[in-house]
Amino acid sequence: MKLIRKGKVKEVYEVSETELEFLFTDQISVFDKVIPSLVPRKGETLCKTSAHWFKVCEDMGISTHFIGLEGDNKMRVKKVDVIPNYSLLSTSSSNYLIPLELIARYYVAGSLHDRIEEGKIKPSDLGFSNEHRPKYGELLPDPFFEHTTKLEKVDRPVDFEEALRIAGLSRWDYEELKEAVFKIDAKINEDVKKRGLIHVDGKKEFAFNARRELMIVDTFGTADEDRFWDAKKYEDGQCIELSKEFVRQYYRKTGYYSDLVAARSKARVEPDIPALPEDVLNQVSELYMNLFERITGEELD
Q: pLDDT by residue (tens digit) across 235-247?
């Protein structure tokens, strides 16, 4: 097999003209930085969690690119074209990765909270009155749907009109995408709620197949792509992060994130991200393994 792409946490191999193989590594990245630490069994948990949700989607009648597992940390998927040149995409294009990351948020958390605090997002944009000051962990009146680029060097937010233009989407395509995201998330939240979790937010990617029919691709519903909270702790007023957010918060506490933001804002050389201490690394590994079991209801061997 030919290695055609090496991402921050996943390697992609070409199996044939119609199939790819994903190899999920134990690498972990935050803030667009690959941490120089390997998290034991992380790749396995992401691979198996993704496979779980692909099967759930297929049972719901939602098409996916999933073919099957090839061991603990590998899966075979249908191949689609990756076209970074937006001018080549139109509403008649087919068999391509839609160059957007679609994000649905259901609670005030993460970067959404940061943007509210910075005044970049108004309470009224979220369905609140402008006099209301949203608090971290608060349930949104309505889901907040947004999108970023996917194939650019640094992902950036795009509005509705630009999303249509760069991805070759019609307004009908867009509504179909949005509906699929909310339908999948409703199922995720329904399932994980039975196991004491709240699905807070998540991101997804889609593609068109050769008949220009939508199918969900890449990975989703995992500790890397989505945010989960412990439901019982939430009832007690605590937002206990059960996702990669745990790692982001560690680097916020150490001051690394502040240094990184300062360097980026002033176009200076960005500081290297330090490795995770062994005790934190063990906690992260345990988090991924436990979360796999709570998300899927399955046990790791």
A: 999 998 888 989 9
Domains in the chain, please, with CATH?
Answer: 2-296 (3.30.470.20)
With b for 16 or more beta-carbon neighbours within 10 A and e for fewer, the 181-217 pattern comes to beebbebbbebbeeeebbbbbbbbbbbbbeeeebbbb
Query: Is the whole-model pTM more than 0.85?
Result: yes
Given a contact cutoff of 8 angstroms between Cβ atoms, the answer to whether 214 and 100 are in contact is no
The predicted-structure confidence for 97-138, as pLDDT tens digits, reads as follows 999 999 999 999 989 999 999 999 999 999 999 899 999 999
